Fold this sequence. Notes:
about 80% helix; mainly alpha; 13 helices
Amino acid sequence: MNTKNLLQLLILAALWGASFLFIRVGVADFGVAPLMALRVGIGAAFLIVVLLTRRPLQQSATILRKHALPLLVVGILNSAAPFCLFAYAELTLTAGVTSVINATTPLWGGLVAFLWLRDRLTALRSLGLVVGFLGVLMLVWDQIAAPHGSAATPLSTALAAGAALGATLLYGIAATYTKRHLTGVDALTVATGTMTGATIVLLPLAILYWPATPISAHAWGAVIGLGVACTGIAYMLFFHLIAAIGPARTITVTFVIPIFGILWGALFLGESVSAGMLEGCGVILVGTALATGVIKRLPWVGPRRADT
């Protein structure tokens, strides 16, 4: 990976880390469904323009129509539903905490692939799953012990953490479903089709639950940042990196997103960062590294000798 690709990877992590900041700012004014409908709608519009600049309209429409059902399913599993769950979670949890929970996505991905596709789980990857989810328990316990905000209770904190974990579980299911039903379809088409499908699903809910009170300029700025920077531009950068350095290296962005999520929350929202939160984050990242094969052997286990 050269310096240019590394810088692009850091920019992608910064953008996706910022999404948790923007959700935290916008969800109080917009509500869950309207905020996420605007996010995927803006993202879909951005990606449609990019798609049409690279491929004739008739060809694009034919490909999208051919794969309409799986694209809609992935749009629900990978965008509409998890985005709403994260927005619900951030009514209680901080941007930093939700960005850390987001790092469990590869853990769910590995577990779902094992149960659904019978992908092999080595002892080290299995250990990573256990360690990663232990980190989640540590993180949630830290949040329950010191709830953020006067309205937060242990129950609401646990429900919010459960919603965020549910979102990452859906990401894992979506990855496996995509592998089974959309293999061979180019990434830009998948992104455009799934974002469009998510918009279609969320639009009626956005209209139904559109807030009656005025929406602040900060909230409008947050939704524009979510749609343009954290969805449209970030997805394009993500696909470029997959083509340039491969999916295995690109997925390492997972380890950097919580750093930016915590940083942006602390800098712009004044969110506190406890020692327990950092410990939980560290354990989750170690578990994710083990589960995804980034750590291929434990440091205290030496390499096997050739004469044994």
